[in-house]
Amino acid sequence: MTAPLTDLNDGCRMPLLGFGTYSIHDPEIFVQAIDAGYRLLDTATRYENEQEVGQGIAASPVSREELFVTTKLPGDAHGSAGPRRELTASLGRLGLDHVDLYLIHWPLPRIDRYVETWQAMIALRDEGLATSVGVSNFLPDHLDRLVAATGVAPAVNQVELHPYFQQAEQRAADQRHGITTQSWTPLGRKTDLLDQPALAEIGARHGVTAAQVVLRWHTQIGAAPIPKSATPERFRSNLDIFSFELDPEDLARVADLETGERIGGDPRTHEEF
Ligand code: NAP
Questions:
Q1: 221 near 171, Cβ under 8 Å?
Q2: How does residue 190 score in pLDDT terms, banded at 50, 70 and 90?
Q3: Ligand 1 pocket test: which of 228, 270, 271 has the largest number of ligand atoms within 8 Å of its C-beta?
Q4: Quick check: is 47 catalytic?
Q5: Which of 13, 25, 82, 218 is geometrically suited to a Cys-Cys bond with 5, CB 3.0 to 4.6 A?
């Protein structure tokens, strides 16, 4: 089983559900995830596992053309020259000649170089080093600036999104620009989200787990989740969400879980380099 594909605003297509790789360093896990049906692998220079992701891709019998590889530009490479230098280094570690999606990891508004950085990302796309380019953690006003300056909207905006932090305004802003919203920390890592009784009750009606309810919710509100699990039983079931559908009442109950609180950094102030 593989995830269905979703259309991006640049004519490309991306798996609707992918494999988050943060903190995984064993190439064999990536081989197993691909074997389980995952086709999208989400890494970043900052995760320091691009080499292991590349080893997993090389060891898998699934061909490179069937896979969708995302990596991300680190904060210390903002500017006009950084993206080329960093993507070249990422491709070397991954052992690939292109990635399918290259994202600016954080906007770093205090540094205020993300527009210049975006121009360089577009050039990398035009050269084919990245098939699609996008951003991560960009707020509505950051997106407006990119589009006003370049006329090119990111294909994807990867943001924190889970039932505790549902991002309605951000999703609407992404949608206005035709940007696909991709959900990081989709299962609410480090919180009690998956213990919520409402999720167990909804899951019992459909014969699925709380995690499967949450991941299906993402896809039904138009977001593309990238759950991380290093546990084969869990990562197999996380992908198995396309044979049931949440009804409007289920969706409303999940919506009721909103607390409005982030787990990760606030893009207005968060800095990592
Ligand atoms: P997450 O996917 O919400 O949660 C991961 C945690 O949930 C792990 O501890 C995992 O445990 C557990 N888990 C997974 N499936 C489960 C299941 N079916 N039942 C119970 N527990 C389950 O959090 P995340 O890793 O923070 O986010 C996912 C991915 O998003 C990352 O790996 C990364 O690729 C990306 N990300 C991007 C950004 C960004 O700034 N762009 C920031 C954070 C994350 P086990 O591994 O032990 O199974």
A1: yes
A2: confident
A3: 228
A4: yes
A5: 13
Ligand 1 atom 9 nearest Cα: 189
77 has pLDDT over 90? yes
Q: Could you tell me the distance, in angstroms and rounded to a whole number, from the CA of residue 215 to the centre of ligand 1?
A: 12
Which pTM does this prediction carry? 0.98
Q: How many domains does the chain have?
A: 1
Q: What single-letter amino acid sits at 261?
A: E
Residue of minimum CA distance from atom 44 in ligand 1: 184
Catalytic one of 38, 47, 114, 164: 47
Distances (CA, A) of 170 to 61, 115, 224: 38, 19, 14
The verdict on residue 63 lying in a domain is: yes
Output the domain CATH number for residue 80: 3.20.20.100
Q: Tell me, what's the pLDDT at 90?
A: 99
- Provide the sign of the torsion angle of the four alpha carbons 52, 58, 60, 65, taken in this order: positive
Full residue range of the structural domain in which residue 138 is found: 5-191+216-245
DSSP label of 43:
-
